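Project channel, design review

CF: Before we commit to the Phytopseudomonas punonensis constructs, I'd like one complete example in the thread so the newer folks can see what an input/output pair looks like. Taking 2,5-diketo-D-gluconate reductase B.
RD: sounds good, go ahead.
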Amino acid sequence: MPQIPTLGLGTFRLKDQQVIDSVRNGLELGYRHIDTAQIYGNESEVGRAIAESGVPRSELFVTTKIWTDNLGADKLIPSLKESLHKLRLEQVDLTLIHWPSPKDEIQVAEYMAAVLEAKAAGLTAQLGVSNFTNAHLQQAMEVVGAEQIATHQVEIHPFLQNRKVVEFAREHGIHLTAYMPLAYGKVMTDPVIQEIATKHAANPAQVALAWALQQGFAVIPSSTKRANLESNLGALNLTLSDQEMAAIAKLERGERLANPDFAPQWD
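CF: and here is what came back for 2,5-diketo-D-gluconate reductase B:
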């Protein structure tokens, strides 16, 4: 199985020409991991940007996510086929369950079995979960086995470090992907991060990404600006000291940015 590239391109909130430009710029700059979702309403545009990029399919890692309306055993695979049609792909590299079923109306066992079936049918190379509590993750492991869960994608940034979730996933050998790693740009104005950035002749976004990367997380920042997309790649060449890592660890303040009304009871 291809490893999940550590630095990917998120497409949340990007629509129409904006997402086409972002993905096209990203691919030109060297990004090879593109993250989308059914609910983003941009799979067709992402597919178009990929198709027009000329980048060989074998070099790309494309993730999509199953929306809560499609978690039923009768809906999951048809919805994934529709996503593939929009993305102009025969297979995605990774399919995530985007959120646990609201109020657990549909059991974890039902949708994990369905996504495993999608993998067996060749619609997705790997499967994973997103926004799961530790209890949901435990249930998912009981159905498919921890070794089948390629990643758990959760909100992680210096102001929400999600330590209980991180610790539980690590205990079971499950990889983590940090979404919103820049906290919607809030890292840019944090004095601790700014000071570390100055020392490294870097910018705060690069520091926040390096902090996540050094912990072994994949990160999927998004940007509409080519210069920022390019700059974010600089995080791959930045190494923070133990003291700097510890200073950023102290910024935890439980600041959760993705908390819709259907979210589970967080750990």
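RD: helpful, thanks. The two ends are 30 Å apart (CA to CA).
CF: Residues 120 and 255 are 38 Å apart (CA to CA).
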